[in-house]
Here is the input.
Amino acid sequence: MYRTALLRAARSAAQASSRVQRPAFQRAIQTPFIQPRISTPAFAISAVRCYASSSGLAQEEVTGRILDLLKNFDKVSDEASRLSPQSHFTNDLGLDSLDTVEVVMAIEEEFSIEIPDKEADAIHSVTQAVDYIMSQPDGNATKPSSPVQ
Amino acid sequence: MPNKLSGLQKDVLSLYRSCLRATRTKPAGTRPNFAAFARREFEKHVKMDKKDFGTIEFMLRKGRRQLEIYEQPGVTNIAG
Here is the structure.
């Protein structure tokens, strides 16, 4: 609310440059360092742009993070040479079902999400894990980063 | 591990998952102990015949009750 009031004050100050209004405006904002901020509306717009342009995760990044995570997983470290973006947890990396659960939980922690049981049961390979992460709202698998209106 | 898991097998994995979730509520230092404990408890019966439904269901109930107990905030550490 305070910000809205400031912006409104700034706009009215910019429109009416009469000498009567100016001192009132300056009195309203007592700290001088705020003044350049509100007197240049471009700043506010660029801030909004920055916020929207923080696009989701790229597929390569997701794959990289999952592979790193697997590399540090003690049961995989012996099979590290067979680790690839196409690896199957059980067939290629020799993990049992409990290990698979652990890997999926580790992925949950890595990406700060919670994977429901049903989806978690369906993840058996690096590819499936990447696909799942990319299908989440923060992933941008199909659409390139589109600016939020 | 076959691709298709039976409902019972999924229940077991789901219990293991809840166990791992529960470890997150524990102090960071003792979390690995809890995870190792859960893993050990499951591995004790890893050779269980998957057709032995009665026993598996009994173990599941036992495991859930155990989880309830260890989940309590008063439990802060466990033999790792």
